[in-house]
Amino acid sequence: MLLRHIRYLLAVVEHGNFTRAAEALYVSQPTLSQQIKQMEEGLGVQLLDRTGRTVRATDAGEAYIAYARKALRELEAGERAIHDVRDLTRGTLRLAMTPTFTSYLVGPLIARFNARYPGIALHINEMPLDTIESALAADEVDLGIAFSNVRSAEIESHPLFVEKLSVVVGIHHPFARRSAPITPNDLEQAPLALLTTDFATRTYVDAYLQKQGISPKIVIEANTINAIVEIIRRGSIATILPDPITRENDALREIQLRPALPHRTVALLRRKGGYQNAASLAFAELAKDMKVDKLV
Question: How does 31-56 read in b/e, with b if 16+ C-beta sit within 10 Å?
Answer without folding.
Answer: ebbebbeebbeeeeeebbeeeeeebe
